[in-house]
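Chain X:
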Amino acid sequence: MSALIAEDEIVHEADFVWLEDIDGLDYVRQSLDRLPTRRGKPAYHRDGRMVGYALLAPDAKPSRSSGTFRRRVFWLLPHDRDTDPEGLYATGAPAEAVDPRTLAPGIKGRKTERSEGGPPSTAMRELGITLPL
């Protein structure tokens, strides 16, 4: 879950590999997975599809107990807004979802009005109010 990812857990990220264009996506789900390597495309074992993944810098150390590396994986499920715009997430977004435009290596990203199904209402715009996300 993105809320559970701390920035000190992703400090060794060097880059992201996006498997599809993220400009059309309001949000992506992110998780911190235990993977056998610092780089390369990870195996994907969820429903839906992998949208991208993080590459780690050469100085990233594996876990002493498991020998694995914690890397972020970005993904979407079949019932997410990009494929089911009138479905469960027509408004709102899953807990682990963030706006992909707010992501960068070492930055966990955040929800935005767009990821939550915005745009803001006319009243909010007139009052200069933005969602506290």
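Chain Y:
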Amino acid sequence: MNLKLAKILSTIGHPLLTIPTSIIIALFNYEDFDNAAIVSILVMVCVILPLSIKMYKGSKRGTYTNFDISDKAQRQSWYIFVLFLLLIITVIFFITNQSQVVKWNALFFFLLLLISKFLNYYIKSSLHVSLNIFLTFLIIPISLMLGIIFLFFIFFISWSRIVLKRHTEKEVIYGWIVGLLIGFLSFATTF
């Protein structure tokens, strides 16, 4: 029962589901409709779609042990790919003079993954946790209650990652630390 529940919670809390959902909600709350639509499409086409395809193909070919890329060594090439995608989209946002919320959150998202990449040489911090905590800081200005509920849900995500043996408790704690640090910096800079 615990294993089945952990799989469900981990899937619901997978960053490839929570990131697009949170970004779209945030953009349509912070930006005018046209700009929110354009930025949403850019993020989906330039980051989420290529990343999803790479993860899917990698897990099917055996390049990645699983879709979560839970193997520490396998994450290094994945980090390079996602950081490249994020660098491109962040530069586009700065060149096109997007709002502070769009530009700086893209930059902080990049920074979160860059820190996680360097930490990965020592410990595989939980991206399920750190990325979702970061997203919480995008949600809180929209709805404090929704942000608190989402933060509470991250405790369940953390539990699921440990039960599924994708992470140790220490790796989940590092995920919390990185997510909180970058989330606070982002929140203080953009709101």
